[in-house]
Amino acid sequence: MDKRFHPAQAALAAGDAADLASLLAADPGLAAAISSANDHPTLLQCLVLSMPPVDRLEAMIDLLADHGAELTDPLIAACGCNNERAVAKLLDRGARIEGNGRWSPLEEALYFGQEATLSLLLQRGAAADNLRKAAGVGDLEKVAGYFDEQGELTTACGEIAWPFDRMPIPPDSRRDRRHILGNALNYAASWGRVDVAKFLLDQGAEVNLIPAGFDYAGTALHYAAHQGRREMVDILLKRGADPGVRDTKIHALAEDWADHFGHAELADHLRHVRLNTE
Q1: pTM for the full model?
Q2: Of 61, 136, 203, 224, whose CA is between 20 and 30 Å from 92?
Q3: More confident residue, 237 or 165
Q4: Would you list the domain boundaries of the chain?
Q5: High-pLDDT (> 90) share of the chain, %
Q6: pLDDT in tens, 253-274
Q7: Which fold does the domain 1-127 belong to in CATH?
Q8: Measured on CA atoms in the order 175, 177, 181, 186, is the torsion positive or negative?
Q9: What is the rounded distance in angstroms from the CA atom of residue 136 to the CA atom of residue 118?
Protein backbone atom coordinates (compact mmCIF):
# COMPACT_ATOMS: atom_id res chain seq x y z
CA MET A 1 0.00 0.00 0.00
CA ASP A 2 1.02 3.66 -0.28
CA LYS A 3 3.21 5.14 2.47
CA ARG A 4 0.24 6.87 4.05
CA PHE A 5 -1.11 3.47 5.08
CA HIS A 6 2.07 1.90 6.45
CA PRO A 7 1.67 2.79 10.15
CA ALA A 8 -1.91 1.54 10.10
CA GLN A 9 -0.83 -1.63 8.31
CA ALA A 10 1.64 -2.27 11.12
CA ALA A 11 -1.14 -1.78 13.67
CA LEU A 12 -3.34 -4.23 11.76
CA ALA A 13 -0.59 -6.84 11.61
CA ALA A 14 0.01 -6.49 15.37
CA GLY A 15 -3.68 -6.57 16.19
CA ASP A 16 -3.19 -3.28 18.02
CA ALA A 17 -6.65 -1.71 18.13
CA ALA A 18 -5.51 1.16 20.35
CA ASP A 19 -2.78 2.19 17.92
CA LEU A 20 -5.21 1.91 15.02
CA ALA A 21 -7.71 4.12 16.85
CA SER A 22 -5.04 6.79 17.35
CA LEU A 23 -4.04 6.71 13.70
CA LEU A 24 -7.65 7.03 12.59
CA ALA A 25 -8.19 9.94 14.94
CA ALA A 26 -5.19 11.70 13.45
CA ASP A 27 -6.22 10.93 9.85
CA PRO A 28 -10.03 10.58 9.76
CA GLY A 29 -10.16 9.76 6.05
CA LEU A 30 -7.72 6.88 6.29
CA ALA A 31 -10.28 4.10 6.74
CA ALA A 32 -12.13 5.01 3.54
CA ALA A 33 -9.01 5.88 1.54
CA ILE A 34 -7.92 3.77 -1.42
CA SER A 35 -4.31 2.91 -2.10
CA SER A 36 -2.99 2.80 -5.63
CA ALA A 37 -0.36 0.23 -4.78
CA ASN A 38 -2.06 -3.19 -4.94
CA ASP A 39 -5.17 -5.20 -5.70
CA HIS A 40 -6.49 -4.99 -2.12
CA PRO A 41 -6.44 -1.24 -1.73
CA THR A 42 -8.09 -0.52 1.61
CA LEU A 43 -7.07 -1.13 5.19
CA LEU A 44 -10.15 -3.22 5.84
CA GLN A 45 -9.33 -5.52 2.95
CA CYS A 46 -5.78 -5.91 4.25
CA LEU A 47 -7.16 -6.75 7.69
CA VAL A 48 -9.58 -9.45 6.58
CA LEU A 49 -7.03 -11.05 4.27
CA SER A 50 -4.56 -11.57 7.11
CA MET A 51 -4.74 -15.23 8.09
CA PRO A 52 -4.93 -16.48 10.73
CA PRO A 53 -7.09 -13.57 11.92
CA VAL A 54 -5.68 -11.26 14.58
CA ASP A 55 -7.13 -11.66 18.07
CA ARG A 56 -8.88 -8.25 18.02
CA LEU A 57 -10.27 -8.65 14.52
CA GLU A 58 -13.86 -7.73 15.36
CA ALA A 59 -12.85 -4.63 17.29
CA MET A 60 -10.65 -3.45 14.44
CA ILE A 61 -13.42 -4.03 11.91
CA ASP A 62 -15.66 -1.88 14.11
CA LEU A 63 -13.06 0.88 14.21
CA LEU A 64 -12.64 0.95 10.45
CA ALA A 65 -16.38 0.69 9.81
CA ASP A 66 -17.08 3.52 12.25
CA HIS A 67 -14.63 5.66 10.28
CA GLY A 68 -16.35 5.07 6.95
CA ALA A 69 -14.64 1.99 5.52
CA GLU A 70 -16.44 0.36 2.59
CA LEU A 71 -17.61 -3.08 3.77
CA THR A 72 -18.78 -5.16 0.83
CA ASP A 73 -15.53 -5.64 -1.10
CA PRO A 74 -13.75 -6.68 2.13
CA LEU A 75 -16.60 -9.14 2.75
CA ILE A 76 -15.99 -10.68 -0.66
CA ALA A 77 -12.24 -10.84 0.04
CA ALA A 78 -12.84 -12.51 3.41
CA CYS A 79 -14.91 -15.21 1.71
CA GLY A 80 -12.05 -16.03 -0.62
CA CYS A 81 -9.66 -16.77 2.24
CA ASN A 82 -12.24 -18.47 4.50
CA ASN A 83 -12.07 -15.82 7.21
CA GLU A 84 -15.34 -16.79 8.88
CA ARG A 85 -14.95 -14.34 11.75
CA ALA A 86 -14.57 -11.43 9.37
CA VAL A 87 -17.48 -12.61 7.24
CA ALA A 88 -19.81 -12.82 10.23
CA LYS A 89 -18.74 -9.44 11.60
CA LEU A 90 -18.96 -7.64 8.27
CA LEU A 91 -22.44 -9.01 7.67
CA ASP A 92 -23.43 -7.83 11.13
CA ARG A 93 -22.11 -4.38 10.24
CA GLY A 94 -24.21 -4.20 7.08
CA ALA A 95 -21.98 -5.44 4.27
CA ARG A 96 -24.13 -6.46 1.32
CA ILE A 97 -24.49 -10.21 1.15
CA GLU A 98 -25.62 -9.86 -2.48
CA GLY A 99 -22.23 -8.34 -3.40
CA ASN A 100 -21.10 -5.31 -5.34
CA GLY A 101 -23.02 -5.81 -8.59
CA ARG A 102 -20.09 -7.49 -10.34
CA TRP A 103 -19.32 -10.36 -7.98
CA SER A 104 -20.75 -11.72 -4.76
CA PRO A 105 -19.52 -13.27 -1.50
CA LEU A 106 -21.22 -16.55 -2.45
CA GLU A 107 -19.42 -16.66 -5.79
CA GLU A 108 -16.10 -15.90 -4.07
CA ALA A 109 -16.55 -18.83 -1.67
CA LEU A 110 -17.58 -21.12 -4.50
CA TYR A 111 -14.74 -20.02 -6.79
CA PHE A 112 -12.04 -20.55 -4.17
CA GLY A 113 -13.52 -23.72 -2.69
CA GLN A 114 -14.21 -22.33 0.79
CA GLU A 115 -16.73 -24.73 2.30
CA ALA A 116 -17.01 -23.24 5.79
CA THR A 117 -17.63 -19.76 4.45
CA LEU A 118 -20.10 -21.10 1.91
CA SER A 119 -22.12 -22.73 4.71
CA LEU A 120 -22.09 -19.51 6.71
CA LEU A 121 -23.29 -17.44 3.77
CA LEU A 122 -26.13 -19.83 3.04
CA GLN A 123 -27.15 -19.76 6.69
CA ARG A 124 -27.22 -15.96 6.51
CA GLY A 125 -29.48 -15.98 3.46
CA ALA A 126 -27.16 -15.69 0.44
CA ALA A 127 -29.15 -16.32 -2.74
CA ALA A 128 -28.19 -18.68 -5.57
CA ASP A 129 -29.49 -16.14 -8.07
CA ASN A 130 -27.67 -17.18 -11.22
CA LEU A 131 -26.82 -20.48 -12.88
CA ARG A 132 -23.25 -20.88 -11.62
CA LYS A 133 -24.28 -20.16 -8.02
CA ALA A 134 -27.14 -22.64 -8.18
CA ALA A 135 -24.85 -25.24 -9.74
CA GLY A 136 -22.16 -24.69 -7.12
CA VAL A 137 -24.51 -25.02 -4.16
CA GLY A 138 -26.22 -28.02 -5.73
CA ASP A 139 -29.73 -26.59 -6.02
CA LEU A 140 -31.08 -28.68 -8.89
CA GLU A 141 -34.53 -27.06 -8.76
CA LYS A 142 -33.03 -23.60 -9.25
CA VAL A 143 -30.68 -24.86 -11.94
CA ALA A 144 -33.63 -26.34 -13.86
CA GLY A 145 -35.50 -23.07 -13.43
CA TYR A 146 -32.93 -21.27 -15.57
CA PHE A 147 -34.10 -23.26 -18.61
CA ASP A 148 -37.35 -22.74 -20.50
CA GLU A 149 -39.65 -25.48 -21.81
CA GLN A 150 -37.56 -25.78 -24.97
CA GLY A 151 -34.37 -26.28 -22.98
CA GLU A 152 -33.00 -22.84 -23.74
CA LEU A 153 -31.37 -20.72 -21.07
CA THR A 154 -33.43 -17.82 -19.76
CA THR A 155 -31.91 -14.38 -19.27
CA ALA A 156 -32.10 -14.95 -15.51
CA CYS A 157 -29.20 -17.43 -15.75
CA GLY A 158 -26.80 -14.48 -15.75
CA GLU A 159 -23.58 -13.79 -17.61
CA ILE A 160 -20.22 -15.36 -16.82
CA ALA A 161 -18.14 -13.43 -14.30
CA TRP A 162 -15.05 -13.97 -12.19
CA PRO A 163 -13.23 -12.18 -9.31
CA PHE A 164 -10.75 -10.32 -11.49
CA ASP A 165 -12.54 -7.13 -12.47
CA ARG A 166 -9.33 -5.66 -13.88
CA MET A 167 -9.32 -8.44 -16.47
CA PRO A 168 -12.79 -8.34 -18.02
CA ILE A 169 -14.15 -11.41 -19.78
CA PRO A 170 -14.96 -10.62 -23.45
CA PRO A 171 -18.70 -10.01 -23.95
CA ASP A 172 -18.96 -12.75 -26.58
CA SER A 173 -17.77 -15.32 -24.03
CA ARG A 174 -19.74 -13.89 -21.11
CA ARG A 175 -23.00 -14.32 -22.98
CA ASP A 176 -22.26 -17.46 -24.96
CA ARG A 177 -24.58 -20.39 -24.13
CA ARG A 178 -21.78 -22.95 -24.49
CA HIS A 179 -19.58 -21.09 -22.04
CA ILE A 180 -22.38 -20.34 -19.57
CA LEU A 181 -23.27 -24.05 -19.44
CA GLY A 182 -19.63 -25.10 -19.24
CA ASN A 183 -18.90 -22.57 -16.53
CA ALA A 184 -21.80 -23.90 -14.44
CA LEU A 185 -20.67 -27.49 -15.08
CA ASN A 186 -17.22 -26.65 -13.71
CA TYR A 187 -18.78 -25.29 -10.52
CA ALA A 188 -20.92 -28.41 -10.15
CA ALA A 189 -17.92 -30.65 -10.79
CA SER A 190 -15.70 -28.81 -8.34
CA TRP A 191 -18.28 -29.13 -5.55
CA GLY A 192 -19.34 -32.69 -6.35
CA ARG A 193 -22.92 -31.79 -7.28
CA VAL A 194 -23.60 -34.99 -9.17
CA ASP A 195 -27.29 -34.48 -9.99
CA VAL A 196 -26.65 -30.96 -11.23
CA ALA A 197 -23.74 -32.07 -13.40
CA LYS A 198 -25.84 -34.81 -14.99
CA PHE A 199 -28.65 -32.35 -15.66
CA LEU A 200 -26.32 -29.80 -17.27
CA LEU A 201 -24.77 -32.48 -19.45
CA ASP A 202 -28.24 -33.58 -20.50
CA GLN A 203 -28.97 -29.95 -21.42
CA GLY A 204 -25.98 -29.84 -23.73
CA ALA A 205 -23.05 -28.82 -21.54
CA GLU A 206 -19.88 -29.97 -23.33
CA VAL A 207 -17.88 -32.23 -21.10
CA ASN A 208 -14.50 -31.34 -22.65
CA LEU A 209 -15.05 -27.61 -23.02
CA ILE A 210 -12.65 -25.25 -21.26
CA PRO A 211 -15.13 -22.49 -20.45
CA ALA A 212 -14.59 -18.82 -19.73
CA GLY A 213 -14.61 -17.61 -16.15
CA PHE A 214 -11.61 -19.35 -14.62
CA ASP A 215 -8.04 -18.12 -14.27
CA TYR A 216 -6.78 -21.69 -14.11
CA ALA A 217 -8.81 -22.64 -17.17
CA GLY A 218 -9.59 -26.33 -17.28
CA THR A 219 -12.39 -28.75 -18.01
CA ALA A 220 -14.94 -30.07 -15.55
CA LEU A 221 -12.65 -33.09 -15.14
CA HIS A 222 -9.82 -30.82 -14.01
CA TYR A 223 -12.04 -29.20 -11.39
CA ALA A 224 -13.40 -32.50 -10.12
CA ALA A 225 -9.83 -33.80 -9.85
CA HIS A 226 -8.70 -30.62 -8.10
CA GLN A 227 -11.20 -31.25 -5.29
CA GLY A 228 -10.73 -35.03 -5.18
CA ARG A 229 -14.27 -35.83 -6.35
CA ARG A 230 -13.89 -39.48 -7.42
CA GLU A 231 -17.61 -40.07 -8.06
CA MET A 232 -17.79 -36.95 -10.18
CA VAL A 233 -14.63 -37.91 -12.07
CA ASP A 234 -16.10 -41.30 -12.96
CA ILE A 235 -19.39 -39.78 -14.09
CA LEU A 236 -17.58 -37.30 -16.30
CA LEU A 237 -15.41 -40.06 -17.76
CA LYS A 238 -18.52 -42.12 -18.54
CA ARG A 239 -20.00 -39.08 -20.26
CA GLY A 240 -16.96 -38.72 -22.51
CA ALA A 241 -14.49 -36.61 -20.56
CA ASP A 242 -11.02 -36.84 -22.09
CA PRO A 243 -8.28 -37.23 -19.44
CA GLY A 244 -5.72 -36.15 -22.04
CA VAL A 245 -6.97 -32.55 -22.24
CA ARG A 246 -4.56 -29.99 -20.75
CA ASP A 247 -5.57 -26.77 -19.04
CA THR A 248 -4.66 -23.50 -20.73
CA LYS A 249 -2.85 -21.92 -17.75
CA ILE A 250 -0.04 -24.35 -16.96
CA HIS A 251 -0.80 -27.02 -19.58
CA ALA A 252 -1.43 -29.72 -17.01
CA LEU A 253 -3.66 -32.79 -17.13
CA ALA A 254 -6.49 -33.48 -14.71
CA GLU A 255 -4.27 -36.12 -13.10
CA ASP A 256 -1.63 -33.43 -12.48
CA TRP A 257 -4.21 -31.26 -10.73
CA ALA A 258 -5.19 -34.22 -8.55
CA ASP A 259 -1.54 -34.91 -7.72
CA HIS A 260 -0.78 -31.28 -6.89
CA PHE A 261 -3.70 -31.03 -4.48
CA GLY A 262 -2.91 -34.25 -2.65
CA HIS A 263 -5.31 -36.71 -4.26
CA ALA A 264 -2.75 -39.37 -5.20
CA GLU A 265 -5.15 -42.28 -5.64
CA LEU A 266 -7.39 -40.23 -7.90
CA ALA A 267 -4.36 -39.11 -9.90
CA ASP A 268 -3.34 -42.75 -10.40
CA HIS A 269 -6.88 -43.61 -11.46
CA LEU A 270 -6.96 -40.82 -14.04
CA ARG A 271 -3.51 -41.75 -15.29
CA HIS A 272 -4.58 -45.38 -15.71
CA VAL A 273 -7.69 -44.34 -17.65
CA ARG A 274 -5.69 -42.01 -19.87
CA LEU A 275 -2.98 -44.54 -20.67
CA ASN A 276 -5.57 -47.15 -21.55
CA THR A 277 -7.47 -44.85 -23.89
CA GLU A 278 -4.58 -43.33 -25.82
Answers
A1: 0.94
A2: 136
A3: 237
A4: 1-127, 128-278
A5: 94
A6: 999 999 999 999 999 999 999 9
A7: 1.25.40
A8: negative
A9: 10
Amino acid, single-letter form, for residue 198: K
Are both 1-127 and 128-278 of the same fold?
yes
- Alpha helix stretches (DSSP H) within the chain: 6-14, 17-26, 43-49, 57-66, 72-80, 84-92, 105-111, 115-123, 131-137, 140-145, 171-174, 177-190, 194-202, 220-226, 230-238, 254-260, 264-275
**CA–CA distances in Å: residue 271 to residues 192, 209, 235, 258:** 20, 20, 16, 10
Residue 26 pLDDT > 80: yes
CB-based burial of residue 188 (10 Å sphere; 0-12 exposed, 13-18 middle, 19+ buried)?
A: buried
Cα separation values, 48 from 13, 14, 169, 225, Å: 11, 13, 27, 29
> What does the pLDDT look like over 112-151, one tens digit per residue?
999 999 999 999 999 999 999 999 999 999 999 999 999 9
Domain 128-278 falls under CATH 3.30.160.20? no
